Amino acid sequence: MRNKEFPKNAKCPLCRGRIAPGTTTFTADLDKGVIIVHDVPAQICGQCGEEWFTNEVSHQLDELASDMRAKGSEVEIISFNMANAESVKV
Ligand SMILES: [Zn+2]
């Protein structure tokens, strides 16, 4: 996972492949559990498959991970959109 904002039609810095917006699944190992977030918006290289998240998205993923750490759950499987909808409600 890397953080980077790309302009339109940017090329992958690793392999010069074409980068296109898409969604991916983010997983993180926490001290006591695992968090799995589906439907995370990302910029994905069509050639090497490297994925980049914008600063905003990676910040939200950080928040989700620390929420989960605080709750002490062992496994959390959520959708990025749902997580955002929840955080708006709260
Ligand atoms: Zn690439």
Protein described:
- With 90 residues, the protein is α/β, with parallel strands linked by helices.
- The protein has a single domain (2-89), classed as Ubiquitin-like (UB roll).
- Helices cover 30% and strands 37% of the residues.
- The protein is built from two helices and five strands; from the N terminus they run ββββαβα.
- It has helices at residues 55-71, 80-89, and strands spanning 2-3, 19-29, 34-45, 51-53, 75-79.
- Strands 1, 2, 3, 4 and 5 form a five-stranded mixed β-sheet that branches.
- The two termini are 28 Å apart.
- It binds zinc ion (ZN).
- Zinc ion is lined by residues 12, 14-15, 17, 45, 47-48, 50.
Keywords for this entry:
binds zinc ion, 90 residues, 5 strands, five-stranded mixed sheet, elongated, alpha/beta, Ubiquitin-like (UB roll)
Topology readout:
Blueprint: E1 2-3, E2 19-29, E3 34-45, E4 51-53, H1 55-71, E5 75-79, H2 80-89
Parallel strand pairs: 1-4, 3-5
Antiparallel strand pairs: 2-3, 3-4
Question: Strand count, sense and closure of the main sheet?
Answer: 5 strands, mixed
**Beta-strand residue percentage:** 35-45%
Shape: elongated
As for the CATH topology, it is: Ubiquitin-like (UB roll)
Number of domains: 1
N-end to C-end Cα span: 28 Å
What's the level 1 CATH class? Alpha Beta
Count of alpha/pi helices: 2
Ligand species: zinc ion
The total beta strand count reads: 5
Low-confidence stretches: none
Rounded radius of gyration (Å) = 14 Å
Return the string of H and E elements. Answer: EEEEHEH
* Protein structure class: alpha/beta
Second rung of CATH, namely the architecture:
Roll
Approximately how much helix is present in the residues?
Answer: 25-40%
Q: Calculate the mean pLDDT score and round it.
A: 87
